[in-house]
Amino acid sequence: MSIIDKLKWRYATKKFDTNKKLSAEQLDELLEAVQLAPSSYGLQHYKVLVIENAEVRTKLREAAYGQPQITDASQLIVFAAETNIDEGYVKNFVDLIADTRNVPRESLVGLEGMLVGAINGRTPEQRLLWAQKQAYIALGVLVAAAADLGIDAGPMEGFDPAKFDEILGLKEKGLTATVIAAVGFRADDDHFSKLIKVRRPKKELFIHI
C-alpha cells in the first residue's frame, strides 16, 4: 500500500478492541517516529507521555468527558508542551548538539545566541503557544506513522487540560497537556470505520499561485 492508501485507510478511531495491544516493537517504532518529528529549530518544545496505567487512565477518562478511547485503547499518548522555554532550555539543547555531533561547544556560540534571541523575543504566552504548535506537528507525525504501521489512532482535543495536568503532575514538571491520541486497534463493530472519508475537494482546498 502507498502512503495515500494508508491515509485513506486510517480514521479517527472511536472504538478500540480492548483485547488487542501494540507489541513492544510496534510501540517503539511508533515512538521513534514521534522522536523524529520536526520542530522549530529542533527544540522539541514538549514531552510525550505514554499512559498505560489502568488506574491513571480511569481518572483521565473522567477528565475527558467519559470518552472510552482513553481507557480502551492500547496506549494513551499525551503531548505536553513545555511551559518554561528559556535560556536554560536553549543551553541544554546546544549542549546536546555538541555532544551528538561531537563538535566543540564553543563553535555553537553563534547558534546559541540566535536561539536565545528567538526565545527572548517572545512573551511567556507566545512561548507557550509556540510550544503547543510544535506538539501538534508531532501529533501529525504520530497519526501518519500509525497509519503506515497499520496501527489505529484517535487524535483528541476533548479533554480538560487543567485536570490532566493535575492527575499527571505536569505543572510540577513544567509541562501542560496540549493534545492527546489513543492508539491501538479498531473494534470490528466501530461503525465509524465503515464511513466514507469526507474531505473538501482538491479544487476547493488547494490554491496554486
Architecture overview:
This protein is an alpha+beta fold and 209 residues long. It has one domain: NADH Oxidase (3-Layer(aba) Sandwich), CATH 3.40.109.10. It has 9 helices and 4 strands. Strands 1-2-4-3 form a 4-stranded antiparallel β-sheet, with helices on both faces. Helix 2 crosses helix 7 and helix 5 runs antiparallel to helix 6. The radius of gyration is 19 Å and the shape is globular. 28% of the residues are buried.
CATH fold topology: NADH Oxidase
Helix content: 40-55%
CATH class categorisation: Alpha Beta
Oligomer designation = single chain
What about the largest sheet? Answer: 4 strands, antiparallel
- What's the number of domains? 1
Keywords:
209 residues, alpha+beta, NADH Oxidase, four-stranded antiparallel sheet, 46% helix
Short description:
It comes from Mucilaginibacter pankratovii. By secondary structure, this protein is an alpha+beta fold.
Q: Secondary structure elements and their pairing?
A:
Elements: H1 3-9, H2 24-35, E1 46-51, H3 54-62, H4 69-72, E2 75-82, H5 87-101, H6 109-120, H7 124-149, E3 152-156, H8 161-168, E4 175-184, H9 202-205
Antiparallel strand pairs: 1-2, 2-4, 3-4
Helix pairs in contact: 2-7, 5-6
